[in-house]
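To illustrate the input format used throughout this study, we show a single complete record. The first block contains the structure-token representation of the backbone; no residue identities are included at this stage. The design step must infer an amino acid for every position from geometry alone.
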């Protein structure tokens, strides 16, 4: 079908690009023209301008048009190398961290559900009935018709091109002529939602994912939309989580937001674990020796503390029994190992340090940060609550309590803790950034924009380098890119 004037579809193309991210270049305009003609006939609309006005005001009509335009080309166990990588090495690595929560897997652009169900089947094969306790799988797609088909879980022969006879028998029940339904124990592992990936306000089920499959979806988006959605998805990942794209899409997403890593001869993206480093704050004393300047808002310690060690009852006896220099050396080694991304070894060293000096503030905060990073959230929360009870000026304690609250989905508590951190240190970029994340999720766009702008300004000035708390595996350019991206979204 050809447009009579060659330009009537222009406004519709712009609307669909703006709201859904789809582009219709390189021969795909024909599918748009045919889809629009079908919907115009269905709705009794006789001009492209009138139909554009209808789509612009009627979200259901836009959804109906999108259903005609999306290409739901998928089948079970498609590109099995990537699926085996996820179900084997990647999930094994994440589970080895010993986190006491289900591992979350997201299929972004899940179409009619074959990819999400394929992962669930592989998990069931490896873990049996325990998979229901150990994992959650979520599939999302913009096409509500495709999501409805996924929820039904009934498939024809075309969906089984990559399925062996044994898998078909094990995971499906015949329900009609050439049709099969996914068995209930698999369907219980998976949930589906209608989600527009271009909308940055994602539902709770997508938050804090450990592995995201985003395969063969971005090929339908222009480059700017690809970058935007990839950055949005990266923001959903837990530290140490993975984002897997299709083999032909890998290089296009190497934009500095996530680390490109090789696993089993395949490439995927990893979000480096967020770890925290705590540097000493000293109260300047009149006529005292020179001290390192802290970042604006850094909190001074008690003038009675020394090298981060808060006096404790019976401390004189401890000092006689232990060499303070040796204890400090143990702490420095623990910090160095933590900077290298290790967890067990520094925690063991910190236990020794704290057995000698239970009030060693820097050791307590480093231990808490390692526990947060390892997702031992309850233990970390107890330690952080003790920190702020012992020292109401402990910036690190409030920050980590905010991070823990976000991990647990309690945004109200998280925002409260980040505000407490900002009360102590308005120049703390991390508190500004996470506060902005929560505010953006609440659609408090003005204050979110202000938070991102402040965090970006602090990062660009390098004010995190002296006296501030920052992630051990911190990449300033990465966080600056995220802030700029978030700001560009909020302007639209």
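Output of the design step:
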């Amino acid at each position: 079908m050809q447009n009579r004037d060659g330009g009537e579809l222009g406004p519709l193309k712009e609307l669909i690009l703006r709201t859904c991210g789809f582009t219709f270049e390189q021969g795909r305009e024909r599918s748009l023209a045919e889809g629009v003609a079908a919907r115009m006939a269905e709705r009794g609309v006789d001009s492209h301008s009138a139909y554009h006005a209808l789509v612009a005001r009627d979200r259901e009509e836009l959804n109906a048009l999108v259903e005609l335009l999306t290409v739901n080309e998928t089948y079970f166990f498609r590109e099995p190398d990537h699926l085996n990588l996820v179900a084997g090495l990647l999930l094994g690595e994440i589970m080895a961290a010993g986190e006491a929560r289900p591992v979350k897997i997201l299929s972004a652009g899940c179409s009619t559900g074959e990819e999400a169900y394929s992962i669930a089947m592989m998990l069931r094969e490896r873990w049996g009935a325990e998979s229901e306790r150990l994992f959650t799988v979520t599939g999302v797609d913009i096409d509500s018709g495709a999501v409805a088909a996924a929820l039904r879980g009934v498939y024809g022969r075309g969906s089984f091109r990559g399925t062996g006879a044994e898998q078909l028998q094990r995971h499906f029940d015949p329900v009609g002529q050439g049709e099969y339904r996914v068995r209930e124990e698999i369907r219980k592992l998976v949930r589906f939602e209608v989600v527009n990936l271009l909308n940055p306000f994602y539902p709770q089920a997508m938050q804090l994912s450990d592995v995201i499959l985003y395969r063969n979806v971005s090929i339908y988006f222009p480059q700017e939309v690809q970058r935007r959605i990839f950055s949005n998805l990266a923001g959903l990942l837990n530290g140490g989580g993975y984002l897997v794209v299709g083999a032909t899409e890998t290089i296009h997403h190497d934009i500095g937001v996530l680390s490109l890593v090789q696993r089993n001869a395949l490439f995927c993206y990893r979000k480096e674990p967020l770890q925290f480093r705590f540097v000493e704050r000293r109260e300047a004393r009149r006529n005292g020796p020179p001290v390192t300047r802290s970042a604006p808002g850094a909190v001074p310690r008690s003038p009675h503390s020394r090298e981060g060690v808060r006096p404790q009852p019976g401390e004189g006896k401890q000092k006689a029994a232990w060499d303070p220099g040796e204890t400090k050396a143990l702490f420095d080694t623990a910090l160095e190992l933590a900077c290298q991304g290790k967890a067990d070894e520094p925690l063991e060293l910190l236990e020794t340090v704290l057995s000698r000096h239970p009030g060693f503030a820097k050791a307590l905060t480093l231990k808490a940060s390692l526990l947060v990073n390892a997702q031992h959230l309850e233990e970390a929360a107890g330690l952080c609550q003790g920190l702020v009870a012992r020292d109401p000026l402990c910036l690190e304690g409030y920050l980590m309590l905010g991070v823990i609250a976000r991990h647990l989905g309690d945004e109200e508590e998280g925002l409260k803790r980040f505000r407490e951190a900002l009360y102590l240190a308005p120049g703390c970029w991390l508190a500004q950034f996470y506060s902005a994340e929560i505010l953006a999720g609440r659609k408090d766009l003005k204050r979110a924009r202000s938070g991102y702008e402040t965090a970006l300004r602090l990062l660009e000035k390098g004010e995190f380098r002296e006296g501030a708390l920052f992630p051990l595996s911190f990449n300033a350019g990465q966080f600056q890119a995220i802030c700029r991206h978030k700001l560009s979204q909020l302007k639209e």
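Structural context for interpreting the output: The chain has three domains: 10-69, 80-270, 276-283+293-491. The first helix runs from residue 10 to 20.
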